Amino acid sequence: MSELLEIQNLSSGYNGKDVLQDISLSVGKGEVLGIIGQNGSGKSTLLKTIARIITDNAGNVFFAGVELNNKNTWDLKQLGLSWFVQGGMVFPTMKVSEHFEFTLKGKSKSESAHIKENCISFFPALASCMDKRGGNLSGGQRQMLSFAMLLSQKTQCWLLDEPTAGLAPEAVKDAVDFLNKMKEQENKTMILVEHNYQVAFELADKIAVIKDGKIYNSFQKTEFLKENFLNKHLYN
Predict the structure, then answer these.
(1) Global pTM?
(2) How large is the angle between the packed helices 169-185 and 139-152, nearest 10 degrees?
(3) Which residues pair with 57 in a beta bridge?
(4) What is the pLDDT of residues 140-199, one digit of tens each?
(5) DSSP state of 95
(6) CA distance linking residue 89 with residue 145, whole number of Å
(7) Does some domain include residue 149?
(8) Measured between alpha carbons, how far is 119 from 114 in angstroms, rounded to an integer?
(9) Quick one: pLDDT at residue 227?
(10) ∠ CA 5-59-69, rounded to 5°
């Protein structure tokens, strides 16, 4: 498995104070890496640093052999990297149809129609919501729209920050089903930050545990079922 994303000795934080310290890890093409840890451990900071939302960092991040330290957030989509913000990518005052117009801006009419059709094939319920504004959608509908916007970007690697946060159990199941399809059918590479450890364990090929801003340990999927995993590796 070729390494698509490589992080080398990364330290990162806010206002000159490190939250992450000396993080090194890699993610292979088509692999899903789950990042777990207690609140405040630095999970979301890691994603924001990769996505160049946070730029106060030392160390190196490479994606497909390209160094990201000198890139801007808006450059990443062209390289094949997308960031899924916690809470989804929905604008309350915009209609669902306008979300598609926004994300597909600059593409030809035929290409836009093809991408939109593909997105709707995964989320057919959105077809009847085109005139609804984002703020009037249910939690499950907002999540469907957010995933559709992510899918429409046609990138190969997704940085997913708490994609199931705040969802009802049925919507969590739908989210997991969709992400599994993307993993199995589209060979998407994902870095998944999740508070729901069951979701992380179901989707991930390997898990990295962050404690106090450092990688405490990482495990292949075969290790997840060990008795007392969380107590041993997360809470001690």
Answers:
(1) 0.89
(2) 20
(3) 12
(4) 899 999 999 999 999 999 999 999 988 888 889 999 999 999 999 999 999 999 988 889
(5) B
(6) 8
(7) no
(8) 9
(9) 45
(10) 65
* CA atoms 177, 94, 129, 99: torsion sign: negative
Evaluate whether residue 193 is within a structural domain: yes
What's the token pair of residue 58? 């030392």
Q: Calculate the alpha carbon distances from 139 to 92, 155, 168 in Å.
A: 12, 25, 8
In CATH, what number is assigned to the domain containing residue 27? 3.40.50.300
Distances (CA, A) of 4 to 30, 50, 155: 9, 13, 13
Tokens of 236: 């001690």
Range of 177's domain? 3-88+155-233
**pLDDT tens readout for residues 6-65:** 999 999 988 878 889 999 999 999 999 999 888 888 888 999 999 999 888 889 999 999
Amino acid at 168: A
Please give the pLDDT value at position 140: 86
> Nearest-5° angle of CA 33, CA 36, CA 42?
105
Structure tokens at 17: 């104070």
Helix (H, G, I), strand (E, B), or coil: what is residue 35?
Answer: strand
Tokens standing for 179? 């992400």
